[in-house]
Amino acid sequence: MLGTTTVALLVACGTFVAYERITFRRAMARNLNVLADALAHNCAAALSFHEIQDTTLDARATLKALDAEPAVLAACLYNADGSKHADYSRHGGQNESPARAVSEGTRIEGDRMVVVRPVVNEGKNIGTIYVLADLAESNRQLRLYIGFSTLILLGSLLLALAFSTALQRLILRPIIALTNTAKSIGQTRDYSARAEKLSGDELGLLTDAFNQMLGDIEERTNALERANESSRLQTAEMRDAATVLASSATQIVTATQRLSASSAEAATAISETTTTVEEVRQTSQFSSERAKFVSDHAQSAADVAKDGKRSVNQTIAEMNGIREQMREIGENILSLTTQSHAIGEIIASVDDLAAQSKLLAVNAAIEAAKAGAEGKGFSVVAQEVKSLAEQSKQATSQVRAILSEIQKATSRAVLSTEQGSKAVEAGVRQSSAAGESIAGLADSIAEAAQAATQIAATSRQQFAGMEQVAMAMESIKSASTQALSSTRQVENAAQQLQQLGQKLKLLVDKIK
Amino acid sequence: MMIPLCRLVLLTVCLQVAVYSGRLLAQMPNPEYAKKAEFLAKLPDYVKWPASESGPISVGILGDDAFAGALDKLKPKRSRRIEDLKDCQMIFISKSEGAKIEAILTSLEGTNILTVGETEGFAKKGGGIGFVMEGEKVLFEINPGAARRSGLGFDLRLLRLAARVINS
Q1: Do B161 and A46 touch (CB under 8 A)?
Q2: Given this model, what pLDDT does residue B140 score?
Q3: Coil, strand, or helix at residue B166?
Q4: What span, in angstroms and rounded, lies between the C-alpha atoms of A372 and B136?
Q5: Which residues contact A302 (CB under 8 A, 6 or more apart)?
Q6: pTM of the full structure
């Protein structure tokens, strides 16, 4: 401790001495430079005009001013060509300046300092000035400084010795106790040891802090050991997990391989399905076209049925007309029969009249024959009447025969009419039945047409649906292709995962 | 007849030689004027010129030019009439103007022109600088008062070198 202080003091003193030496020399150099520049300025005219007149005296008088600076030993003024112009030496002694001008600058030669500066006037270099100074003064001061420093050093050392003896008792003992405790803990690693507290001052506090620190360290060491134990357990768990992970990865690989295979199968199946769908689509198209065809035909059949129905209705109407006419014919025939009967009665009366006429004619002829020649004309008339009566009788019998024929014909006509009427009735019935059948048929055809139209529409929809299905199948196909490649990637990833799991397992196995 | 002709020729030759050597002599200034030229060349460095002046100082020579080219580096303006030289800053007044010195100096009053002369008592008569000879030596007298009147000033270092300082 005392040694350190001594070294520090020595270093400090040495530094101060060196610093003093440097600053003194620097100040002296600056001082001499200023002096040389001032002299150079004052001697400028002397140097300028030395060729015209002897200016040496003037220059010498200027240099004489150096008497005021005791450190300066000699000085000299040189012309621009380097020749000596004027010089100066302290106490008029031997001049030590060189015969010719030397290079400019500030130099230390032994215990002398040399300053050489240019003489400049109006920017022109017209000569050189040389100043030689003694450093003996500086060295003397330095020696004085060193003497003082040594004295201070010795005094300080004595004081330090006294202080350290006193302080050792107060400070060093507790510190040594602390040091011993720290040393023993360093060797035994027993952090439960504690330092003995010797005083209540800052060192006592230091001891307390040290003991507290030991407590912290002890606590931390225990915590660290516990953490190590748990970390060992965690490593074991990790190893188990890695094993599980490795086997799981293997399973995943197997599964993905299977998945890949089934994906390929699925892709094939989808491809086949797509072909089938295409076929179905074509079939559906064909059936749609057929349905359209059927629908069209059903429509035309419905139209025909409608025409038929109309014809049947017309037939029925006409039948009804016929029936009406038949009825009228019956009635006419009936009245004809009645009139035939009347005609028969008329004919009978006409027949009577003819017989009576004949009888009369015969009577007239007899009477005419009695009247002889005058009666002869009458007899001709009577004859005529008699023939007329006979003709009438003949005519009535013919009429009667005709009438009888008419009556027979009428009877037959009535029969026919009745039969016709019945036939018409039957015709009407059959027509109605046909009409109804046709109507039913038309309805059926309409329904069929409607159904066919629906079928066509459905077929179209089905066809569109099949188109969509085909498109969907195409996308499914591409999706399945993508899925297949994805599955391959998954397979690769799973294999990498498996490798990773194995690496992890190896890695964990290394951790003990 | 032959003799006078020979004499004439000889005379002519002699004259030629005399003129040539005279010209030769004139080309080499004597030491006195070499020194005066050197002085005039360095003088402007030790004069405080008016602040407006800048660049090299223009020099004029009034009267005979005895410098024989020694002053040529200053590119002097030569004349026998002071009026021609009033645009110069420094005028050297030759010995030849000795009789007219007072009149010349009077005519230059109020100008910023430095006068340098070589006649006796030039500085005392109001000239700026007057050369004086002491045997072979060229010395000078200086009149700072005259210079001050012309708005000029002399460097103190120049005054120290003067043989005499006249303040009139």
Answers
A1: yes
A2: 93
A3: coil
A4: 257
A5: A442, A445, A446, A448, A449
A6: 0.44
| B8: enclosing H helix or E strand | helix B2-27
The pLDDT value given to residue B19: 62
Contact A424, A323 (CB under 8 A): yes
Partner-chain residue, chosen from A53, A54, A121, that has the shortest CB–CB distance to B45: A121
What is the distance, to the nearest Å, from the Cα of residue A26 to the centroid of all Cα atoms in its chain? 80
**pLDDT score for B26:** 52
Neighbours of B108 (CB within 10 A): 21
* Shortest alpha-carbon distance between residue A45 and chain B (Å): 6
Q: Which residues of A touch B46 (CB under 8 A)?
A: 45, 48
Contact present, A207 and A198 (Cβ < 8 Å): yes
Which residue intervals of A168-201 are DSSP H helices? 173-188
* DSSP element (H, E) containing A403: helix A372-510
What percent of chain A has a predicted confidence (pLDDT) above 90? 8
CB contact under 8 A, B35 and A58: no
- The per-residue pLDDT for A414 is 81
Both tokens of A210, joined, read: 């040290």
Q: What does the pLDDT look like over A54-95, one tens digit per residue?
A: 888 888 888 888 888 888 889 999 998 989 898 888 877 677
List of chain B residues whose C-beta atoms are within 8 Å of the C-beta of residue A121: 45
Phi, psi of B79 (to 5 degrees): -165, 165
Tell me the ipTM for this assembly: 0.72
Residues in a beta bridge with A264: none
Q: Are B146 and B168 in contact (CB under 8 A)?
A: yes
Nearest-Cα distance to chain A for B47, in Å, is: 11
pLDDT-derived band at B1, boundaries 50, 70, 90: very low
* A73: amino acid identity, one letter: L
Could you tell me if A54 and B163 are in contact, meaning their C-beta atoms sit under 8 angstroms apart? Answer: no
Q: Residue A439 has which token pair?
A: 């109507």
Tell me the backbone φ, ψ of residue B159, rounded to 5 degrees.
-60, -35
Containing H/E element for B22? helix B2-27
The β-bridge relationship of strands B59-62 and B77-79 is parallel
pLDDT in tens, A185-216: 888 888 887 877 777 788 788 888 888 888 89
Counted residue by residue, chain A has a size of 512
Cα–Cα distances in angstroms (integers) from residue A189 to residues A139, A182, A198, in the given order: 61, 10, 24
Strand partners of residue B130: B117, B141
Place of tokens 């069929």: A448
